[in-house]
Design brief:
Elements: H1 3-10, H2 35-42, H3 48-56, H4 73-77, H5 82-91
Helix pairs in contact: 1-5
């Protein structure tokens, strides 16, 4: 499956398809190799801070707040889809260390 489409589906951007008709939101065609687009989508999720913490292997305090909210520069500058792929793993429930 196309990684951009998989990201869209997991993020709830695409509409559901039935056996005969598949209606897609225009965002399904977005190129999520651009980390800014991934961040736009992921930042709307309630588990965004935990996802960022997982990427950084940082700690979350007792209130569930991220201690340091920085994504490594190499992921922000990458245009090959690394951040998208990390988000896919996270949303698929593979929350072990990325």
């Amino acid at each position: 499956m196309d990684a951009n489409r998989r990201f869209s589906e997991l993020a709830g951007i695409c509409k559901t398809c039935d056996d005969k008709v598949c209606t897609l939101d225009p965002d399904c065609c977005t190129d999520y190799t651009d980390p800014r687009e991934v961040l736009r989508v992921m930042s709307k999720r309630e588990d965004f801070s935990r996802w960022v913490a997982q990427i950084n292997a940082l700690s979350i305090d007792e209130d569930g707040d991220l201690i340091d909210n920085a994504i490594p520069v190499d992921l922000i500058l990458d245009t090959t889809g690394k951040l998208r792929d990390l988000a896919i793993k996270w949303m698929e429930g593979k929350h072990e260390r990325l």
